[in-house]
Specification:
It is a single chain. The protein is built from four helices and four strands, in the order βββαααβα. The longest helix has 19 residues, at 105-123. Helices cover 35% and strands 11% of the residues. By secondary structure, the protein is an alpha/beta fold. It starts with a strand and ends in an 18-residue tail after the last helix. The protein has helices spanning 49-55, 62-73, 77-88, 105-123, and strands at residues 4-8, 19-22, 40-41, 92-96.
Length: 141
């Protein structure tokens, strides 16, 4: 079973969605707050406005976006910890308004959460959120 998955906020709620967390910084257009079935809104986990504007959903910038976004996640350990907590309870559905979900921050989060889960199952311990950030020059890490 897929532990973490992505759905667009405009998709119908699935019976096996589990915990539904909106991971966009901005509230989705055309959706009234009371009508969106969600358990949490983790806007702090979304990419910075600068990174989001730079990326512009250009698939040619995807690899650089992933690297830069992972670096930003290293600076948001509280939000990352909350996402890990949601994922630890069972199925987690990340909600986003993005059209191309496979080239979005939600895809990066899904992949990192699934990698974290695999590491935890393999070693019995959680990896540190900073493990996902690229090494800083000169740190030897």
């Amino acid at each position: 079973m897929e532990r973490v998955r992505i759905r667009r906020v405009y998709d119908p709620v699935g019976p096996d969605d589990g915990c539904r967390v909106l991971v966009d910084r901005l509230w989705p257009r055309g959706i009234k707050k009371p009508t969106l079935a969600l358990d949490a809104w983790e806007m702090a986990i979304a990419p910075s406005p600068e990174l989001r504007r730079w990326f512009g959903h250009d698939p040619g910038r995807w690899r650089d976006f992933c690297r830069r976004y992972q670096a930003e996640l290293g600076a948001a350990p509280e939000a990352w910890g909350r996402l890990l907590g949601y994922a630890g309870r069972g199925r987690l559905t990340l909600l986003t308004a993005t059209r191309d979900v496979e080239h979005s921050h939600a895809a990066v989060l899904r992949d990192l959460l699934n990698a974290e889960r695999a590491e935890e199952e393999h070693t019995g311990e959680r990896a540190s959120p900073v493990c996902f950030a690229p090494d800083e020059p000169g740190t030897g890490g």
